[in-house]
Each structure stands twice: as C-alpha cells, then as structure tokens.
UniProtKB/TrEMBL annotation:
This protein's record includes keyword Lipid metabolism: no
Signal peptide: 1-27
Residue ranges of domain Peptidase M28 in the record: 267-471
Keyword Signal annotated: yes
InterPro entries reported for this sequence: M28_fam, PA_dom_sf, Peptidase_M28
Protein name: M28 family peptidase
Annotated coiled-coil segments of the chain: none
Domain of life: Bacteria
Length: 497
C-alpha cells in the first residue's frame, strides 16, 4: 500500500499547538503523560477481543438474537467496570427497529430450460416486484460494436462481465458499480431485465461476496432501501452459466415478489461523568459497532463470519478506554456508544444521531473505532483528517499530537481522499455525526484480504497494534475531555456526497 505520511503536520508543532488550546491542557504541561499511556492493558484487550469475536456470539448479525446476546454481554462488562448507564429509561440500552425487504420464496426465475433459485445459482441484486417474459439477447461483453444494431427495447439483455478494474480490495465496489450503472443505462433504453455472467475475476467475487444479496435490503423503517417498488431485475450469474446463456432463442421469465420484516436491534450507551461542574454537561463520544455478518455460507469449512477485526477490535478498545476513564475521569463526560446494525447501513448510528440520549448540542466530538487490529504493525489511518472530510481542524490536530506522543503510527492518507475507490470515509458510524456538523474522526487500520469473510478471526489480530490504536484514541479523547474549549467545526464544511 502506498502511503503519504502526515509527519510534516506532527513535526510542525501539533503538540505545542494542543497545549495552547485550553487552560487545563496547558496547566498539565502534557495531556499525554505516562500514566495515561499505561492505562490500556493488552491482556484486557485480548480477553475481550476473543470473547466478543469468538464463535460463542455466532458473528453478531444485526437484527438477530446473536447481536442482542453480544450486546447484553458488553453492557454487563461496562456495568462491572463501573460505567454508568446512559441509554433509555436508566438502562444501558437504546432499542430500535430495522426493516428488511427480501424476495419471497415463491419468486421464480427461468432462462430457457434452466430453473434458477435466487441465492443459489443466481443472484438478483435488489429485491423488487417484477413480471418478465421476454426474449434473451446475448451481447458478449456489450461493447459498442457488439451492441450496434441491437434493439434492447422489450428484451432481456445478457452481458459477459469484463473489466480490469482497480486492485483487489476495490474491485468488488468497481464490479457492483459497473453492474448498477450499466443496468440503469440499458433499462432506460427499454430493456426489461439485465443479466450479467461472471468472467474469471468476477466469479471469485461471486463466490466470496454475494451472501449479502441473499438477505435482501435493510434500513430504518420506511427508509429508501426497503421501499417496495416495481423494477426491471438485474441478475448476476456464475461463470458456469455462460455456456448455455449464450445460446440463441431463449426466453427469460420471472415472477418476483417481495416481503418485509421488522427486527429489533440495539445501541449500548454508557458514560463516565466528568469532574468539572460546568464541562461535565458536555460529552466526548467514543463510538464503535458491535454487529457483524453472522452465520452464512460455508467457506473452507467455516460458516461463522466472526468479524474479529470488524469490529470486535473496536468493542474491546472502548471497554478498555471506559475502564481508563473510570480510574481517572476527565473534566467532560466520556460517553460510550456501541451502535447496532452498522453492517446493515449504519443504522444504529443513524438512529442514535437522530434520537440521542444526551442532548445533541452537548456532544463536542466523536471518536470512532473501526477495524483497528490488522495490516502493517506501524501503520494506521485517521479518516476525516483532510478536506473535504475534515470537519474540525482542531480535533484533527489533537489526534495527530496524541499519535506523536504514543504510538507514533505512520498515517496513510490515501484512504481518506474523496478519489479513493473504496469510499471508506462513508462506511462507518462517524459519518452519521459528521452529517450533523459534530466534529468527527475515525481511527482505522484499513481493509485486508479477510474482510467480511469467515477468516476474520481473533487469532489474526495483532494485539500490540490494537493496544497502540486504543491508546491513541484514549489519549485524543482525554485531551478533548480536558480542554477549556470544545473543538470548533471548520467553516464551510461540506462533504462531497
């Protein structure tokens, strides 16, 4: 991975700048003193990581009993550590509903003589209502030359997916983006269905990444992702289908219907009250999510998608930071929010941001932990550290100074750029708060080959690195909790989308 380091910011006086931000920090001479740096224990992190990210909680899928069981366990650890409940009705919990829309089991799909089953030998990319009985026209890779003279109106168009695309981690988003955009283009021209057949590279992703399509779409109740609409279906087939899809004279017939369900999910909310008579009314919000993908298709003999890095690492980190604040509270209140159903579309953070259990105006900063235990031991990233994603220069300066104090990670800035194909800034819970103009940053050690696979196991986590990122978050939060002034929002902050 190519890195563009932020060393020039660190060496240009971030620490001295931070010490001038607030009288409390200046009076302490160094808000990152040694007792703060030793408050985070590797043994605690490892114990909690293996508990949350192990098989016992079956991958903690959002909207399932497994997510709820894991949430109860986390709340009990918070209680035992001395953190106070800060959820609804004097509890550690804020329950909310999520809505799921999926294709019905009675939906049918046939191409020629081949009866296809969604989730097994075909994937329908979005659940919707459709009745199709149309000729199937195979157009190769769909180049301009191959499409010349093809009347797509009233037809089902079959295309062999072909595209070089970016590197491996970004290729999935490239692939689905191309399918979405090309399908919309053909439907606008009159096609009644679009069928993509995997080439060799797309087949690898068909096998690894399509489990999400089986479950349908999720949103908060009434949200746009769960609206029941009639639409021309986009269908994704495995590479083995090419031999028979390309045969002429076939008919595509489909009768697709949808059904909708409501499930409970939960945010876990706890706090350590501040010590200052005035500033304790303000909150430094430490953020993470407890859910992952649950039990899915078997890959190499394993059906539990544990999500040890995504995001048991963040869960363990917040437990450790909470204990540190119990031992020595800050002037401001430390508020801890574990968001449910993040993998369903940031649903828990969207719900909490709209229905906070503390006054929204009291939240001075959000420090979000998202996948913080893999990749090179000396590298990490801070999302929201550069425009247009940066919404508080002051908060970023504090975080950079904390990193320079300990653990001195080399900071990759490429993934925070608006041009990065992964769009990583938009895929974690800090986003829900940044959209409300609350100063927000996200700590991450970025994606890896085991991301959203059953191979994301606790044994793959670098515990020393996890401890380093946890200390970094804690030191940043401690400094913010003790500054006289809250971090201001940058004038004119506006995300690119």
């Amino acid at each position: 991975m190519t890195r563009n380091f932020l060393s020039h910011l660190v060496t240009s006086g971030c620490l001295s700048t931070l010490l001038l931000i607030g009288g409390a920090a200046s009076a302490q001479q160094n808000p990152f003193s040694g007792d703060k740096r030793t408050a985070i224990k590797e043994a605690d992190l490892k114990r909690d990581l293996f508990a949350i990210g192990g098989n016992h909680f079956r991958g903690r899928e959002g909207g399932t009993l497994d997510e709820l069981r894991a949430s109860m366990w986390i709340a009990e650890q918070l209680r035992a550590s001395g953190l106070q409940p800060a959820g609804d009705d004097g509890t550690y919990f804020q329950f909310f509903h999520i809505q799921r829309t999926r294709l019905t089991k009675g939906s049918t799909l046939r191409i020629g003589t081949h009866q296809l089953t969604h989730g097994q030998d075909a994937m329908i990319l979005a659940p919707g209502i459709a009745t199709v009985n149309a000729p199937l026209v195979y157009v190769g890779t769909g180049t301009a030359a191959e499409m010349a003279g093809v009347d797509v109106k009233g037809k089902a168009i079959a295309i062999l997916f072909s595209g070089t695309g970016p590197a491996e981690l970004s290729y999935r988003r490239f692939l689905t983006g191309v399918m979405r955009d090309r399908s919309a283009e053909l439907v606008k021209a009159g096609a009644v269905a679009v069928v993509f057949i995997s080439d060799a590279r797309a087949q690898d992703y068909y096998e690894r990444w399509t489990t999400g399509y089986e479950r349908g779409r999720y949103d908060l109740p009434g949200g746009p992702n769960v609206q029941v609409v009639a639409q021309a279906p986009t269908i994704w087939l495995p590479a083995a289908a090419l031999s028979w899809v390309r045969q002429p004279g076939q008919q595509l017939t489909a009768t697709l219907n949808v059904e909708s369900f409501s499930y409970p999910s939960v945010n876990i909310v706890a706090k350590v009250p501040g010590t200052d008579s005035k500033l304790k009314a303000e909150n430094v919000l430490f953020s993470t999510h407890q859910d992952h993908d649950g039990v899915r298709k078997v890959v190499a003999g394993d059906s539990i998608w544990n999500g040890a890095d995504d995001n048991a690492t963040g869960c363990a980190a917040l437990l450790a930071i909470g204990r540190a604040f119990v031992q020595k509270p800050g002037r401001r209140t430390a508020l801890f929010v574990y968001h449910g159903a993040e993998e369903r579309g940031l649903l828990g953070s969207r719900y909490y941001a709209a229905n906070p259990t503390a006054p929204k105006e009291s939240i001075v900063a959000v420090l979000n932990a998202e996948m913080i235990g893999r990749n090179a031991p000396d590298s990490a990233a801070l999302l929201g550290s550069q425009p247009p994603h940066r919404n508080s220069k002051n908060l970023v300066a504090t975080a950079l100074a904390a990193n320079q104090a300990s653990p001195k990670f080399k900071l990759d800035t490429l993934w925070d750029k608006p041009t990065h194909p992964e769009g990583w800034y938009f895929r974690s819970d800090h986003l829900s708060y940044a959209r409300l103009n609350i100063p927000s940053i996200c700590y991450t050690t970025l994606l890896h080959k085991d991301y959203h696979t059953p191979k994301d196991e606790p044994e793959g986590i670098n515990i020393a690195k996890l401890a380093g990122v946890t200390r970094w978050i804690y030191l940043t939060g401690w400094a913010v909790a003790n500054q006289n002034e809250r971090p201001p929002v940058d004038p004119g902050f506006k995300l690119e989308r």
